[in-house]
Design goal:
The chain is an alpha/beta fold. The protein contains ten helices and 13 strands. Helices cover 39% and strands 17% of the residues. The strands form four sheets. Strands 3-2-1-4-5-6-11 form a seven-stranded parallel beta sheet, sandwiched between helices. Belongs to the NAD(P)-dependent epimerase/dehydratase family.
């Protein structure tokens, strides 16, 4: 089975590519902007006809799109998260119409949640950030493309290799130099929001199942931990694994983003039905793996 992975050098993409390479009989091809990729692809800029030529050369049985931008201005987000998937779908229709497309979406597409009500895939979408809005546009491009495609709407990923741009990755790097100093004080933002964390390795398993499960799949499937956890709980778990003996000082003013989306949780029952997937890593597992992978010396 030939699987083309776009964005394989990113946080999610690295884990996805590693998981797929372990599949018996799988031939995983990397596509991205890196000069080391087997196929040079820039979803934010390449025209569909150029993408189609790349797809024809790769001849994939499945395409996994892990490419995406989480930060930057609205134009950068739109080019990568909205235009990119639309161009990819146009190219697939021309060059590889029978290939299975697995596209990574985001729970940010839903927007604010209602406490104690996990959101299903049929719930209305109401993103409140440019990131969420552009990811939703990408999802709509995929689900309306008349392809063999599925969007995995991923919650808040955590685990080994979490980037410094994410709260878990940033906190791990703050804790590393603090060590066991009982006088250390780490000043953090508002940690009162609830998020649905999912281990990055469980995300990779979900991609494997989505790429290899025969027959049609639902257009959108939630991939999350299935429970809302206070961000504060993650911070204290990570501090415990770090052996941190100081004080985590939390601001009380709140943040604009937390105020907009104070509670987020996805219903993951459709993933169990369609893919036979459930998360196998607890949040404690994820945090332990994140800490173990955090470099001793912070660059």
């Amino acid at each position: 089975m030939r699987i083309l992975v776009l964005g394989g050098s990113g946080y999610l993409g690295r884990h996805v590519a590693e998981r797929l390479r372990a599949l018996p009989g799988a031939h995983v091809l990397a596509a991205g902007r890196s000069a080391t990729a087997a196929f040079t692809v820039d979803l934010a800029a390449d025209r569909p006809d150029r993408l189609a030529r790349t797809l024809a050369a790769a001849a994939p049985d499945a395409v996994v799109n892990c490419a995406g931008a989480t930060g930057g201005d609205a134009v950068t987000l739109a080019e990568t998260n909205a235009r990119g998937p639309a161009a990819l779908c146009a190219a697939l229709r021309e060059a590889a119409p029978t290939a299975r497309l697995v596209h990574l979406g985001s729970a940010a597409e839903y927007g604010p949640g209602t406490p104690d009500v996990p959101v299903t895939e049929s719930a209305p979408t109401c993103p409140v950030t440019s990131y969420g809005a552009t990811k939703l546009a990408g999802t709509l491009a995929v689900t309306s493309a008349a392809l063999d495609a599925v969007v995995l709407r991923v919650g808040n990923p955590v685990g080994p290799g979490a980037p410094v741009a994410s709260l878990p990755g940033r906190l791990a790097r703050l804790l590393r130099p603090a060590g066991g100093d009982p006088e250390a004080v780490l000043r953090l933002g508002d940690l009162s929001a609830h998020r649905d964390f999912v281990d990055v390795r469980d995300v990779a398993r979900a991609v494997e199942f989505a790429a290899t499960t025969p027959g049609p799949l639902p257009p959108v499937v939630n991939i999350s931990g299935g429970r809302a956890v206070p961000v504060r709980e993650l911070a204290h778990l990570l501090a415990r694994h770090a052996g941190f003996r100081g004080k985590l000082e939390e601001s009380t003013g709140g943040s604009a983003r937390s105020a907009q989306v104070s509670w987020q949780c996805s219903d993951i029952s459709a993933a169990a039905r369609a893919l036979g997937w459930r998360p196998v890593h607890s949040l404690d597992d994820s945090v332990a793996a994140l800490w173990a992978a955090t470099p001793e010396r912070v660059p």
